[in-house]
Design brief:
This protein is an all-alpha fold. Helix content is 81%, strand content 0%. The chain has five helices and no strands. The relative contact order is 0.19. About 13% of the residues have low confidence.
């Protein structure tokens, strides 16, 4: 499981590093704000992961926390933004690991990775 988390964090580092380079170039022309929207529809996620009612409540709270932390990170410029974003995602993954069973967690990691890749393509 640690390998999966490290893989997601490594992907985020490379993604944000690339995005940061593009942002620096764009900022020379005009100010650009970068943020990731990693929010999930918790009901759809609950159906996909077959969550219990207790898990749904916990996942909702974790998701809300992640989104708040990503909003804060979006207001930071440069390397600090990348670090805050990575910390927020790592924290989210640790919390989800405690809440979900192995099968649910593996599916969640796949969905999170896909969401991160899709955000990078925007």
């Amino acid at each position: 499981m640690k390998k999966i988390i490290l893989t997601v964090v490594a992907a985020m580092t490379m993604t944000l590093g690339f995005a940061e380079t593009k942002n620096n170039q764009a900022e020379q022309v005009q100010s650009v704000e970068t943020s990731f929207d990693l929010s999930f529809d918790v009901r759809r996620l609950a159906d996909k992961l077959q969550l219990t009612s207790e898990q749904i409540e916990a996942v909702q709270a974790i998701s809300n926390s992640l989104n708040r932390e990503l909003e804060t990170a979006a207001q930071t410029k440069g390397f600090g933004q990348m670090i805050q974003t990575e910390k927020a995602i790592s924290k989210d993954m640790r919390h989800m690991r405690r809440i979900l069973n192995d099968k649910q967690y593996n599916t969640y990691v796949m969905l999170m990775g896909t969401t991160i890749r899709n955000q990078r393509m925007k």
